Amino acid sequence: MLAQGMASFISFQIIGLMGRMQRVPDLSDATWLIVGLHSGLAMLLSLFLRLPPWWLIIQAAFVPAVVLAFRLGVAPASYLLAFAVFWLIFRDNTAERVPLYLSSDRCWQAVGDLLPTDRPIRFLDAGCGLGGGLRTLARRFPESHFEGIESAPLPWLYARFMARKLPNCRIRPGNLRELDFQPYDVVYAFLSPQPMPGIWCKVRREMRPGSHFISNSFGVPGFEPDRIIPVGDRGNSRLLLWEL
Ligand SMILES: C[S@@+](CC[C@H](N)C(=O)[O-])C[C@H]1O[C@@H](n2cnc3c(N)ncnc32)[C@H](O)[C@@H]1O
Questions:
Q1: How many CA within 13 A on the CB side of residue 67?
Q2: Looking at CB atoms within 10 Å, which of 21, 117, 134, 181 has the fewest?
Q3: Quick one: 111 and 67 in the same domain?
């Protein structure tokens, strides 16, 4: 927002200056010139602000997309609708910085291979997304109990609906930070680097000795896992396992 705001301010100053010098013939003809100037400035400012590379594309495309939508006469309510759909799917993306992407089938296979076969366990997928992995594990280990917690409404609804016929699989709505990890033998998380330090404090505070915390790919700065298991999938995922 800062980059977009500053780009608007600077491009208006430049266009104003050009106008005073009578170098801008007609604003309606110059729309794409202004848009191009704005996009270029927004990209430069994003570089200066050290934003990750994908932000440069977003910053460059933002104003051209707005102008294009305006010219195509897109109904204003569609923006609200699009926002609502995105919110329903990616609710915690801005606060938690964890979007919805899924562990591969190979990951779930590897997670299953780590679970004990001699006794039933209680397993939690913290931020379970669509719940596909939980269903796979619930079928593979019918004696054990698999739970997921998900804060985004649509994924939670989908996961819950899909698990309705599995008595050993429960999907609950809510924030994983508010759930006590104490009852679980294994907690699995596939989140992002951002929440890992906080999750690790929670794991250390609440999980019992002898239980396991597994993070898909994201480590905890300063705390080496006890085991690292390469999964061998296309995303080069690794399971990081801590024995509490
Ligand atoms: C990267 S996806 C992983 C989905 C699934 N666990 C898997 O491995 O396929 C992370 C999910 O965690 C959810 N999430 C992020 N922060 C959360 C929070 N604080 N409480 C509950 N769910 C959260 C997101 O909505 C998203 O669906």
A1: 15
A2: 21
A3: no
